[in-house]
Structures are given as C-alpha cells and as structure tokens.
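To: structure desk
From: M.T.
Subject: fold request, one chain
Message: Could you run this one when you get a chance? Sequence is below, nothing fancy, just the single chain.
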Amino acid sequence: EKFVRKGLAAAETAVKNDPESGLASKWYGIMLGLVADFESVKVKIKNSQKIKDALDHANQKLPNDPTVKLALGQWSLKLAGIGFIERQVAKTFFAAPPQ
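Reply: Done. Structure tokens follow.
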C-alpha cells in the first residue's frame, strides 16, 4: 500500500507539472485505481469519475496506447461489478453512481 500511495503522489505531481500530458494522466488514472483497493466504498465511488476523466484524457492524447485501452476496460468492468450495496451508497452521496 505504501508504494502504491507513493506512486499516486508521483502521478499527481506529474499531472500538476504538465496537465496536458497523456502519460501523466494515464498513470494518475492507473494509480488512483490501484489505491482504490485500500479505500472505503465512499472514496472508491468518489474517485471513480476522477479515474475515468484521467483515462479519457490519456486516451485523447495517446490514442494508440494499449495500456490506456486496457485501463479503460478494467474501469468499465469494475463499474459493471458494483454491487447493490455500493450502488445504494453512491445514490446516497452522489445521486447516482458514475456512468
């Protein structure tokens, strides 16, 4: 967990230093997704849209990067696998889960 959080911090710094970088956005989205494994349901749902936005930006900047395509696919699968309880939490805090 410690190393994943360090990786997220590095990716956040990269995005702040170069917000237009597709590579920075790619790794920010990936690292944020990895950190989600250590977070509460509420935080996972809150960060879900940040992950999607970062990966969409990376996909625009790096349209031929297979890692971005894989990460977007994994994001979609995780979203599809959200259970009933997590969806209810999302509705409570955010009106609806991310799409």
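Reply (cont.): The chain has a mean pLDDT of 88. Let me know if you need anything else for the meeting.
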